[in-house]
Amino acid sequence: MEYRKLGRTNLSVSSIGLGCVTFGREIGEEASFVVMDRALEVGITLFDTAEAYAKGGSETVVGRWLASRSVRDKIVLATKVSGVLTKDRVITSAEESLQRLQTDVIDLFQVHHFDAKTPLNETLEGLDTLVKAGKVRYVGCSNYAAWQLCKALWQQDVHTWARFESVQPNYNLVTRGIEDELLPLCADQEVGVISYSPLGAGFLTGKYRQGGLLPEGTRFDVIPGHQNIYFHDEKFRIMEGLRTLSDESGMSMIRLALAWVIGRPGITSVLVGARSIDHIEQAFEAEATKLSSELLQRLGSL
């Protein structure tokens, strides 16, 4: 496991992070505890959750685990605020998250989405208030376009507010829009990149076929909205190309897709959602996989 500095902070995060979206939604507390125990055991230190995950259920499960294991000082704890991002809402959300997480401070507090209805300055001032109060160490954003992040960084600099130290985008072999503007901006401004959905919510595992029936109980069946993101001709073509490379190399589609994104330049940490320890193991094994330059080139050119 590699450990990398997050933005300009003094936080060091593992190259693989644990996405806690499944806790309280797809798996119960007992299974979640097993996953978190194993993640910490193999060296994962970044635990990322959000108030929106299971309507606070994920944070509650993580908080109970932290309290029962007494390992708060061993992880970088990240969560998110969503919805209308007024100053009061941002502050209230953080305070409620602190209670559910059973902790005195959140290491990384992120806005889940850009809120076009609320003046950006109001959101940023709320975040700064939390940092000054000692309730939050650092702040970040999720699902921001490059222009939105750039605008926020400028406003934070002008007002000497706590700056966004990280951004959390969707990034995988079939969703690569961040390469054009967001990654160069983050490199220039020293903003950490915590990417999520390295397997495209399961799209890149090979279980889906264009025009085929949806396997019952899969994420695309449970959350149909994912189909709007991934079920397109071009993305199916890329996925089938990955399947071909998997057959040729003898490595699973999952290992190839994970190894590719974990090794991408400019990515600080890759969040992996897990419903069992097997998902932790496959990410750990993928990171240790050394892909040849030829295979990396062919994956990248899909």
Plain-language structure description:
The chain has 302 residues and is α/β, with parallel strands linked by helices. The protein has one domain: NADP-dependent oxidoreductase domain (TIM Barrel, Alpha-Beta Barrel). It has helices spanning 29-41, 57-69, 87-101, 120-132, 146-158, 182-189, 219-222, 225-230, 233-249, 253-262, 277-288, 293-300, and strands at 3-5, 12-14, 16-19, 46-48, 76-81, 106-111, 136-142, 164-168, 192-195, 269-273. The two termini are 27 Å apart. The model has no long low-confidence stretch (mean pLDDT 94).
- Biggest sheet, open or closed, and with what strands and sense? 8 strands, parallel, barrel
> How many domains in all?
1
Q: Give the distance, in angstroms, between the N- and C-terminal Cα atoms.
A: 27 Å
Share of β-strand residues: 15-25%
Q: For the largest sheet, list the strands in their spatial order.
A: 3-4-5-6-7-8-9-10
Structural class: alpha/beta
Kindly report the average pLDDT value. 94
CATH homologous superfamily identity: NADP-dependent oxidoreductase domain
Low-confidence stretches: none
Provide the CATH top-level class: Alpha Beta
Number of strands: 10
- How helical, in percent, are the residues? 40-55%
**What letter string, H or E per element, gives the SSE order?**
EEEHEHEHEHEHEHEHHHHEHH
General shape:
globular
- CATH architecture descriptor text: Alpha-Beta Barrel
What is the CATH topology assignment?
TIM Barrel
Rg: 19 Å
- The total count of helices amounts to 12
